[in-house]
């Protein structure tokens, strides 16, 4: 048996070194990790730039604003924030991986897609490897602050706006065109500056490789979408986003039966995947301005003023299904890895991992879609994300909104979660009805409504009732996803096998990897250092506490387990 395991692991190690076929200059400085036969240059290129309906800022404005030191904002494809250059970007643009262009020529909107946050470079032995679907090492907060600041600087004086308007409209623009542009820019700035001022009051809230995604989805939907025109602002609904988590890896995402770090969303078929991705769009610059107007499923029209690209979201989910876990590209001690496999399979109390992290059948989703079990457990890790899950919000235009056959009207004040789930489910159901030709007109077709409403439970997206429980994912490709724990507070797998009190208090964050300790190298380019707290501050957002499994293994056993985790 050991010989057979060794042969299997040896073949895995050999396959790991095979990069995808080359595609011109795009791969001249990056070694693309093997991620399965369905992950090709064509799927990769589509993943990097597939529009999902995000409308961050007009591309002409983004091209016209300046950095604080006067350079064009896009001069380096945003690499200064950690984003990765995209050799496949649309011709004539300077957008990095995961940034999109949509709309007619001359009036295109720059947006973001999931590749911006889920594409990873790993540097080891002077080689840069690419793990598509891996957690990005980017500073999204700094990008937001600097982008809004650049627009604010363009509005700061007549001279500054004159230069900006000339760059956007050309020297021959009329005064009326310049006035209309200024009104549009001022409205955009008022909205986005309210977000920065209220949600990100300190520069140190997130840092490299983390963001408070749930707060920002709540903030954008409840704070920027549901108020009165023209700004749609409800500034009191924007709260400090101080519960950052690391970007998850997504090559397992379509197969999990639960998703989001606290496991609050059912998952595992295309409809639930669409709900997961639509919520993400509403959080990354999707336009969503619902109105009170009768539709087939609700007294709210969810699609009027909605920029979500439902077709693009379907395409992205199909692409994510094709991403395999990245293969370890270095040498493997197959004898040690075989020993580690046995340790991995032990009971949890004996230092094993399989009870929580092995592939096991999960809930079967309609129609007959098999999933992987995703246990949701409290293992003592940081609790701060839970502080935001039950927060309330003014309902704005959604006050009184309800589904026609189920549920109760939305009150004047409710949870941000309720507003999000109502918006996501309503948008999808209305889009599906429109797609099959029923449109948005009010109809009393109980069979149709029940059939569609049955695709979701009203509580399919709801805050968890149990405290401090997070998802336990299948660990395929875990080697490529440091730092660890949901809040990115532990730099390596070797450190995760230590008691919390012995884990690093501070560590540098960047692309450099330690292949022995399986995680972030101690030396990184740049000066960003993450500071963590202990179990005395479990609710800090930065606690390295919890998940003390495998800590009693011997050093030899830990070495063997790490070797197996490299090829899992």
Describe this structure in words.
With about 575 residues, this protein is of the alpha+beta class. Helices cover about 35% and strands about 10% of the residues. A three-stranded mixed beta sheet has the order 1-6-5, with no helix packed on it. Strands 2-4-3 form a three-stranded antiparallel beta sheet. It has a two-stranded antiparallel sheet with strand order 7-8. Strand 11 and strand 12 (about 300) form a beta hairpin. Helix 5 crosses helix 6 and helix 7 (about 215-225) packs across helix 13. The two termini are about 20 Å apart.
Which terms summarize this structure?
568 residues; three-stranded antiparallel beta sheet; 10% strand
Helix content: 25-40%
For the record, give the distance between the C-alpha atoms at the N and C termini, rounded to a whole number: 18 Å
Number of helices: 16
What amount of the residues lies in strands? 5-15%
**Outline:** globular
Supply Rg.
24 Å
Major sheet strand order = 1-6-5
Q: What class, by secondary structure content?
A: alpha+beta
- Average pLDDT works out at 90
Low-pLDDT segments: 1-27, 440-460
Largest sheet: 3 strands, mixed
Let me know the number of strands: 20
Outline:
The chain has 568 residues and is of the alpha+beta class. Helices cover 33% and strands 10% of the residues.
Q: Helices and strands in order, then pairings?
A:
Elements: H1 2-16, E1 31-32, H2 41-49, E2 57-58, H3 59-64, E3 99-102, E4 109-112, E5 119-124, E6 127-132, H4 140-154, H5 158-169, H6 175-199, E7 210-211, H7 213-224, E8 245-246, E9 258-259, E10 265-266, H8 270-283, E11 291-292, E12 300-301, H9 310-322, H10 334-344, H11 354-357, E13 376-377, H12 386-389, E14 392-394, E15 413-415, H13 416-435, H14 446-453, E16 470-471, H15 493-496, E17 506-508, E18 513-514, E19 519-520, E20 529-531, H16 555-567
Parallel strand pairs: 1-6
Antiparallel strand pairs: 2-4, 3-4, 5-6, 7-8, 9-10, 11-12, 13-16, 14-15, 17-20, 18-19
């Amino acid at each position: 048996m050991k010989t057979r395991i060794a042969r299997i692991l040896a073949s895995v190690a050999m396959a790991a070194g095979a990069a995808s076929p080359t595609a011109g200059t795009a791969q001249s400085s990056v070694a693309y990790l093997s991620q399965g036969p369905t992950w090709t240059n064509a799927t990769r290129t589509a993943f990097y730039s597939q529009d999902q309906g995000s409308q961050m800022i007009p591309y002409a404005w983004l091209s016209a604003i300046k950095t604080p030191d006067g350079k064009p904002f896009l001069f380096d494809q945003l690499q200064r924030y950690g984003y990765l250059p995209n050799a496949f970007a649309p011709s004539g643009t300077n957008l990095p991986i995961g940034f999109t262009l949509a709309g007619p020529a001359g009036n295109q909107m720059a947006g973001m897609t999931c590749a911006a946050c889920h594409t990873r470079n790993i540097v080891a032995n002077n080689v840069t490897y690419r793990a598509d679907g891996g957690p990005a090492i980017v500073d999204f907060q700094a990008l937001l602050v600097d982008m809004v600041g650049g627009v604010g600087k363009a509005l700061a004086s007549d001279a500054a706006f004159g230069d900006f308007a000339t760059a956007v409209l050309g020297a021959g623009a009329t005064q009326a065109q310049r006035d209309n542009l200024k009104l549009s820019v001022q409205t955009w700035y008022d909205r986005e500056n309210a977000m920065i001022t209220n949600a990100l009051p300190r520069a140190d809230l997130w840092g490299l490789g983390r963001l408070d995604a749930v707060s920002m989805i709540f903030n954008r939907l409840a704070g920027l979408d549901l108020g009165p025109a023209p700004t749609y602002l409800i500034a009191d609904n924007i709260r400090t986003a101080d519960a950052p988590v690391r970007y998850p890896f997504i090559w397992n995402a379509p197969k999990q039966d639960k998703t989001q770090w606290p496991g609050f969303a059912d998952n595992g078929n295309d409809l639930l995947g669409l709900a997961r991705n639509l919520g993400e769009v509403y959080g990354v610059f999707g336009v969503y301005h619902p109105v009170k107007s009768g539709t087939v499923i609700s007294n709210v029209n969810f699609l009027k003023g909605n920029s979500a690209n439902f077709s693009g979201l379907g395409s992205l989910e199909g692409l994510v299904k094709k991403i395999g876990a990245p293969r370890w590209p270095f040498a493997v001690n197959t004898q040690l890895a075989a020993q580690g496999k046995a340790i991995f399979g032990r009971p949890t109390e004996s230092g094993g991992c399989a009870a929580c992290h092995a592939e096991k059948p999960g809930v079967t989703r309609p129609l007959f879609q098999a999933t992987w079990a995703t246990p949701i457990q409290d293992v003592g890790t940081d609790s701060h994300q839970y502080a935001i899950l039950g927060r309330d919000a003014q309902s704005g235009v959604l006050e009184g909104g309800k589904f026609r056959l189920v549920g109760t009207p939305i009150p004047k004040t409710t949870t941000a979660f309720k507003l999000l789930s109502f918006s996501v489910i309503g948008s999808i159901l209305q889009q599906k009805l429109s797609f099959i030709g029923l449109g948005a007109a009010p109809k009393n077709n109980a069979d149709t409504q029940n059939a569609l409403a049955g695709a979701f439970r009203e509580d399919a997206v709801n805050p968890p009732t149990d405290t401090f429980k997070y998802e336990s994912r299948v660990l395929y490709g875990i080697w490529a996803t440091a730092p660890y724990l949901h809040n990115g507070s532990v730099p390596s797998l070797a450190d995760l096998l230590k008691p919390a009190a012995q884990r690093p208090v501070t560590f540098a964050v960047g692309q450099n990897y330690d292949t022995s300790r399986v995680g972030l190298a101690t030396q990184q380019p740049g000066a960003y250092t993450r500071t963590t707290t202990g179990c005395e501050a479990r609710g800090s957002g930065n606690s390295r506490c919890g998940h003390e499994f495998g800590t009693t293994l011997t050093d030899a056993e830990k070495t063997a387990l790490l070797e197996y985790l490299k090829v899992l």
